[in-house]
Amino acid sequence: MVMLFVLGLGLVAVSLALAAAALRPSVQTGGIARSIAVLESITSPAPVELTREVDPPFAERILEPMRRRALRVGRRLTGADSSERIRRKLDLAGNPAGWTVDRVVSAKVLCTAVGFMVALAASLVFGVSATTRIAVLAIGAAIGWFGPNLYLYQRTYERTELMQRELPDAIDLLTICVESGLGFDAAIQQVARSTDGPFADELNRMLHEMQIGMGRGDALRALSERSNVADVRSFVGAMAQADAFGIPIAQVLRTQSHEMRVRRRQRAEQRAQQVPVKITVPLIFCILPCLFIAVMGPAAISIMGSF
User: Which positions ≥6 away from 78 have C-beta within 8 Å?
Assistant: First the structure.
């Protein structure tokens, strides 16, 4: 019995040793795993940083060199004061995202080339004469050259209309904040936080300029220079004079709010009076001919039938 018990214990020990050896990864298995890992690292895609260094994207390979060449050509074609004029247009347009002076200059050259190529393709497709082809090429190049300026002009016009429309409400809110006990800077911050639009953006920019050390009067004058709205300049001038002479701001704001309301009502009345004059052209060339056809057409058909 003792021998059988010892033999059983030995068999159990051997079984446990075999199981432990089977569960432990062998050197051969580890080598296979390492080989598979090496193969996967070779066949897997390279990291983005290495790929970007070896194979840069299309924008960096093609578009960026084209933009730099167009910028050099545009600087030679434009005048010395073109940067200031373009920066002024960008300020009036609200500084659209991604638009800088260099980008506008390069866009003018690239758009000119694109307009020239489109005009050339159109002239070849329609088979026009040589004189007409030269005129079409000139028109296409001119449209491409002035295209960015037209875009900035449209942005400026839309921004001016929106600022002029929302200015009285913003002045009313500013007046209420000042009369309720807030300081002028705190009231401007409250108006900029509570409203949306170009005037709120300008107030935020004015606050940032004041935070970096610019005086209130200088910040107000900079706001006036970034806008071509007459009401904004009138408001800024009144605020600058009140700040310089120590006049109570609440009283000045109340007067400015009343004047803004009166001016907006006058502009609405002016546009209403212009409607009859503006509607004359479409009335004569579009509405009256259709009316004559509808009224006199049957009579004309009857007369023609009788003859």
Answer: 105, 108
